Amino acid sequence: MENLETVHLQVKDIYYPPEEIKKECIVQNYEEMYKKSIENPDEFWSEVANELFWYQKWDKVLEWNIPYAKWFVGGKTNITYNCLDRHVLNGKRNKVAYIYVDEDGNEKKITYGELLELVNRLANGLKSLGVGKGDRVSIYMPNTIEAIASMLACARIGAIHSVVFAGFSEGALKLRINDAKAKVVITAAYTKRRGKKIPLLPTVKDAIKELDFVKKVIVWDRDNELSEEEYGSHYINFQKLIKSSSPVCEPEIMDAEDPLFILYTSGTTGKPKGVLHTTGGYMVNTYLTTKTVFNIKEDTIYWCTADIGWITGHSYIVYGPLANGATSVIMEGVPVYPHPGIWWEYVEKYRVNVFYTAPTAIRMLMRFGDEIPAKYDLSSLKILGSVGEPINPEAWIWYYKNIGREKAVVVDTWWQTETGAHMITTLPCYPSKPGKAGKPLFGVVPAVVDKEGNELPPNTVGHLVIKKPWPSMLRTCWGEPERYEKYWKEIPGGVYSAGDLASVDEDGYIIILGRADDVLSVAGHRIGNAEVESAIVEHPAVAEAAVIGKPNEIKGESIKAFVILKEGYSPSQELIIEIKETVKEVLGAIAVPDEVEFVDKLPKTRSGKIMRRVLRAKELGQELGDISTLED
Ligand code: WT7
């Protein structure tokens, strides 16, 4: 790895796409197309939506009663028809939809025809359990074809899926199942990570103990190893359910604004928000962004390394690639097991053209040295995507040189669970700048403003807002409309506040600097400070806790907790271990603090709010800033 100083000297400001890639790009003239999307949105979006199948066309592209939007008003469709049937009927029955691989090199391919049959069987299975349109189904599954089929089976019959990342533990799972009031939970016996089986079923069993609205749990018994006792009347065997169900299931005719899924994401309070996405607009925009940002062609091999438990998995493993009829690689496991070249081994093996991952993974793999990727033939790569957090120029350059071999383009895609699809990036035909996400995508009108909503001049830091509604925007927060409305009220002017700090350069490239609110970004995972704090206080010895993020070279941020103990307890190494264990149990390993420090007092405002900002500045040896509201 080159040292930082030399890399800085080598960072050019701007990188032009190689001619060979440029001439293959579906979009050649970004500026013109963007202009049309803003000046003539009805025509623009109608043209895109017309590339897909609708039972009934929309009467109106957009109805906007701030902050509530309806897209493709009156349109009727089913997203699974567009993701599956459409391709099967167009001669792609035998085209591979997914190549699943695990850490041991096991491979399983599924064609569009087979996936349609699997989805239909499962959809009929869900129906037989009494699941129908509008019912919620929680999915707690490993990153596998079966998980994807579970999501699609819900969408087939109009049930609303709520996928919970399988790395979350009981507390986080229970909260999500309970909030959505899921009728059915779909899970698996286990997931595999670093050569170990991690059981999932026991976590589900614990999570639903008190949730009597959960009627059934469907269990994918991957190795046929669960005994009858492990089932009981509440539990249904996934494989048996599929076998006994019909492979034909007519898609439910869905209104464009019928809910498609809920996905929980961290906010600034202890309770995550159930971000709700609907059918038509989400379908159209994930289709368009996948096609144009990743330049999906008939023979493209595409690999997004995310997990289906996050929005990246929903939009860019499941719905976007399938709507485009692409062939995707999907992997269950971690990037460094059984060896830190495993990703590059699979890129070589499957001749992957588009590779989409997170900066935290790039920085981690960078550490193992340039020799590792150098061993593999990565010449198939054309587009390298980044997502989840700001990518520092060092990691960008490493990705560009050592993975792309200076022949692929890097696209740094900024978006959020709430936005449903990419919002800011450069298209592969367009020059990119290391560390700067780039330009707005079609229909997106971003601005960098101060707290009063005044637009700021170039190269000043402010709040990132979106000034107009876009098709794949969240429609509400499940059961909490006031939290939804807050996005549009935070900053005056009727704009959507993204919660990120950003600035625009003189060429109109947007650079995202990180969160402006009390939300952490740990290894690309979004975690609320308050969520970790409330997990810590579940430990019986803890009176109060405050959590901050500290810059971390690999993970972006690491978590530090300041803890006040209850009367009668004194600080000890054991307590630190126990507190970490508590967070792991309540939330999951990704939220466990790296550091725990015991303190007697926390800085608070006169109204009793913990000033995390002050703690953070002290910890990092920075200026304390305005502390006029500090209690003492
Ligand atoms: C937050 C959203 C969207 C998929 C994964 C995360 C940060 C996301 C970038 C990027 C800088 C980024 C922002 C955003 N973020 N992509 N390319 N550059 N920051 O989804 O969990 O909803 O988190 O991730 O802070 O607000 P999410």
What order do the helices and strands come in, and which of them pair?
Elements: H1 4-10, H2 19-22, H3 30-39, H4 41-49, E1 60-65, E2 68-73, E3 76-77, H5 79-92, E4 96-102, E5 107-111, H6 112-128, E6 136-140, H7 145-157, E7 160-163, H8 170-180, E8 184-188, E9 190-193, E10 196-199, H9 201-207, E11 216-220, E12 235-237, H10 238-243, E13 254-255, E14 259-265, E15 273-278, H11 280-293, E16 301-304, H12 311-323, E17 327-332, H13 342-350, E18 354-357, H14 359-367, H15 371-374, E19 383-387, H16 393-403, E20 409-413, E21 424-425, E22 439-440, E23 446-449, E24 462-466, E25 476-477, H17 481-489, E26 496-504, E27 510-515, E28 519-522, E29 525-528, H18 529-536, E30 542-552, E31 556-565, H19 573-586, E32 595-598, H20 612-619
Parallel strand pairs: 4-17, 6-7, 6-8, 7-14, 8-11, 11-12, 16-17, 16-18, 18-19, 19-20, 31-32
Antiparallel strand pairs: 1-2, 3-13, 4-5, 9-10, 14-15, 15-25, 21-22, 23-24, 24-26, 26-27, 28-29, 30-31
Helix pairs in contact: 3-4, 5-6, 5-12, 6-7, 8-9, 11-12, 14-16
The site of 5'-O-[(S)-butoxy(hydroxy)phosphoryl]adenosine (WT7) has 22 residues, from helix 12, strand 19, strand 20, strand 26 and strand 27.
